[in-house]
Predict the 3D structure of the following.
Amino acid sequence: MAGRAELELALKGQGELVRKLKAEKAPEDQITEALAKLLELKAQLGTNDGKQLFVLKTPKGTRDYNPKQMAIREKVFSTIINCFKRHGAETIDTPVFELKETLTGKYGEDSKLIYDLKDQGGELLSLRYDLTVPFARYLAMNKITNIKRYHIAKVYRRDNPAMTRGRYREFYQCDFDIAGQYDPMIPDAECLKIVHEILSELQLGDFLIKVNDRRILDGMFEVCGVPADKFRIICSAVDKMDKMPWEEVKKEMVAEKGLSPDVADKIGEYVQLSGATELADELLQDDKLSQSKVALEGLADMKQLFEYLTFLGIKDRIVFDLSLARGLDYYTGVIYEAVLGPNQAITRMEQNEHCEPTGVGSVAAGGRYDGLVGMFDPKGRKVPCVGVSIGIERIFSMMEQKMETSDQKIRTTETQILVATAQKQLLEERMKLVAELWKYGIKAEITYKKNPKLLNQLQYCEETGIPLVAIIGEQELKDGVVKLRVVSTREEVDVARENLVEEIKKRTYTS
Amino acid sequence: MAGRAELELALKGQGELVRKLKAEKAPEDQITEALAKLLELKAQLGTNDGKQLFVLKTPKGTRDYNPKQMAIREKVFSTIINCFKRHGAETIDTPVFELKETLTGKYGEDSKLIYDLKDQGGELLSLRYDLTVPFARYLAMNKITNIKRYHIAKVYRRDNPAMTRGRYREFYQCDFDIAGQYDPMIPDAECLKIVHEILSELQLGDFLIKVNDRRILDGMFEVCGVPADKFRIICSAVDKMDKMPWEEVKKEMVAEKGLSPDVADKIGEYVQLSGATELADELLQDDKLSQSKVALEGLADMKQLFEYLTFLGIKDRIVFDLSLARGLDYYTGVIYEAVLGPNQAITRMEQNEHCEPTGVGSVAAGGRYDGLVGMFDPKGRKVPCVGVSIGIERIFSMMEQKMETSDQKIRTTETQILVATAQKQLLEERMKLVAELWKYGIKAEITYKKNPKLLNQLQYCEETGIPLVAIIGEQELKDGVVKLRVVSTREEVDVARENLVEEIKKRTYTS
C-alpha cells in the first residue's frame, strides 16, 4: 500500500481531474468514476482513530435497487410476464454460473467480456453471459425437443458501463423462446407479436422492429464477392450502419478489413435497402441475389413472415432492413431488433443514442438459432429454436425518468391501515388488533414505540401513503368500536370491531 | 491431458466404483457425483468423428428448475411475499457480487466458503454469502436509519452440497429485516410473528421456534468461568446440542477446546434448560447468572418478548432454549431458529435430519445485529437491526416431495384456450382469432403447424391442462360462430364470435 503522503498527493490530483472533467461537461459516468476513485483513495488514507474504513460502493457497473426502483421494476416485469403467460409460456431457471466450457465458443469476440470465477479448487466456472446458451444447455442436458419457455434473470458482462443510459455489467434479460420442429415462420411471427405487445403495453412511445435474415446476409456477401473468411467481420461492419453513414462503414470495410472497394460498393447497394413484402419480392427477382440458394430461402421465408405479420395485425411497425446484422455467432435464420423513437427507419443516422452497436439502443432483439442445442448434444441432434430477449434495463431507466418528471407518487408498500392510539399504555391493544387484522389478510402496521404520539403516527401514514388509520383509546375499547380515519380527508367514523375487516376491504378495494 | 488408454482405464475403475456404491446403498449424492465424474471422463475420451464433447451438467451443488419446480417455487414465494407485504415491508435488490472487502470479517470461520471472482483487472469481487451483509452495506452507503424491507435472492456458499436434503451451493434466501431505533422487543416480536405466519400458511406440519439471546449466552459463559477468548468456540460447541447429547458436547469442550471439566459442567446445568417466561423469571433470580449485567438485560428482554408473543397470539410455538447458539459473528441480542417436526423440544436428539449445525434443518433463523451497519459507517454510527431469513430450499424440497406423492397435477402454464381447426388451410383464420383473444387479455395458443390434425391439437390440451378449445371450420366462419369445446367433458357448444371473450372468461374464472 502506498504511503500516506503519496496517497494525499494522488488524492489532490484526482480532485483536479474531477474539476477539469466537470468544467469540460464530461459525461456523468466519467465524473462518477472519478469520484469513486477519490473515495477509494480517501478510504485508504484512513482516519486518526485507527478505525478500519471501507469503500462504500457497489462493484463497478452495478447498482442497488431502492424500494421506488423496485416498485417500477415489478410493474415492468408484471407486464412482461403477463404477456409471456398470455402466449402460453412456461418458465425455468438456471444457475447464475455455468461450467466455463459451456460458454466457450458461443460469443465470438465478446468472449473476453465473460466474468470468470476464481479457481478455488474444483470446477472452472463463469457467470452466465446471456440466457440463451444456458437454455440450449438445459434442452440438450434434459433431451427436451420442444418447449415454449420464458426466463427472467440477471446476466453478466465485463463491458464498459454507461449507467446513465441503462448499460450495466449486471443486468436483467427477459427471454422468450420457442424450441421445436414446426412449420416455417409461425413461431418466428409469434416472437415478433410478443415484442409488439410488450412495447405497446409499456407505452414507451413510437417503436420500430427491424427484421433481416442471416441467410440473406450470407447470400448477399457471397454474390458480392466477399471472401468466405471475411463474412463475420464484414457482417459486424454492416451492423454499425445504424450509427454511421454508409460512407464511413465502407471506409472501415476497405481500410480496416481489407475489402476491395468495388465489393464494398456492391454491398452498399443492398444494405441501404429497407421495406416490406414488396422488397422481398423485388430481391427474389434480383439478378445477382437470386443466384444464391440460401438468399432465396431467406427471402421466401421473409415473404411468408410478412404474410403472418399481416394476419397477426402488426405489419405496420415492422420493416425488412438489409442493414440489420446482429453480432452473435449462433444465429442461423431470421434476426430482429426493436428500437424506440419516431421514424427510426428514416432518421436512424441521427439517433445515435438509440443505436449503440452493443445493443444499448435496442430494447428487444433476437432471432433463430437452429444449431446451438446441437453443439451441446453428444450426437449433435438439432433442436430448432427462435426467441427474443427484452432489454429491460433501458426500459427501467426510461420509466424512472418518466416517474421522476411526473408528479405521480409511487407507493413502495401496500399497507392498508395503521393501528394507532392517542393514549399511553395501549401497546397490548394495538398488538392484539393488528394481529387480528393480519389474520384476515389485511395489510396492517403498528409503530414500534411503546407510547407513540398520535401526530407521529399520522405523519407516518402521510409519508408512506397508508390510506386508513384505526385509532383505539379507552372509550373505543369500552364501546367495542374502532375510530376509522381516512388520512386524505381526515374524516373519522366509529366502526364496530366485528365490521372492521369488511369496512377496510370495502374502502381499499381499488388501491 | 491424459492419454486415451489411461482414461479408458480410469473410466472402467469409475464404473466399478458406481456399482459398488449402488450395492452399498450409498446416499444418492455420492452416486450422482460418481456418475458426473464418469461422464466427464467419457467426454474427455471424445468420439471418433472428432466432434467436441461437453460435460452436460450444471456446476457442483447447483441445479436447474424445470417448469414444474418453478410452479412450486412461485407458489411458495407468493405466500412469503404476501406475508412480508401484509406487514408493510418494502423490497430492495443488491448486486449478486460485492467488493471482496465488504464481506471480509463478517462470517468468522465460514469465510472460507465465500466464492471469489477471478482477478481480471479492476476490483476484487466475491459472490454474496447472505443478504444481511449487503443490506447493512446498503443502509450505511445510503445513510438510511430506518426501513422495513424484504429481499428475496440467491446467495452462494462453497459448502458440501447435500442436494437431496435441499442443501445447495446456490440457494435462495428470503429475508425480512427491521432497521431503526425503536422500543425493545417490539420489532423482534414481529419477526417471530412473521415466521409463525409463514410456516403455518405453508402447511409444513408441526414446527417450533427456539429463542435465546447472545447476551444471556455471554453472561452464562462469564459466570461459569469461560475465558473471554474462548466464548466463540464454546458457543459453537453449544450450538451442536441439537444433534449430539450433552455428554458428547462436553467432551468436545474439554478435550478439543481445552475447557476445564467443572466449567463445562456448570455450562451443562444451564444449556439443558428450556421453557418460557417462567424460565426467564427463574434465571433472573439465579444466584450466579444474576451477577452478570448483560445476562440480566437479556433475561429482562426475554420476559418482555414473551409478553408480546402472548399479545400476538403465538406463544405456544415458541420456546426459550438456552442451548440455541447461532454461529454468525454479527448477532448482538435475541437469536432464533425454527425447526420442523413434532415435539422438537423433547425429541430433538433423534431428529438428526432436521438439525444440521450449518442450518439445513432450520427452516428459518435470525436475530438482532445492532453493530453490523456501524462496521460500514465511516463514523461508526450504529443502526439497530433485527431480522429473519426463511430457508426456502428445504421447503421447496418438501413441497416437491409432497406434490410427487399426491396425485395432484401441476399445471405449468395458464393457457385458457387453444384455437384449433379440423380443416386444412385455416392458419390465417387461427392467427386472426388468437390475436383477437390476446388483445382482450385471454391466454391463448395455436399449434405451430400449417395444417395440424385435430386429434393432435386436442391431445396437446390434455397434456398441458388447457381447459377449452375454440374450433373453427368453414361452417363456423360462415355462421360467425366458434365451436367451444370443454376438454374435460368433451361438451361442445356454438358461441357467437362477439360473445367468445365473455364466455371464456366466465368458464375459466376460477382456474
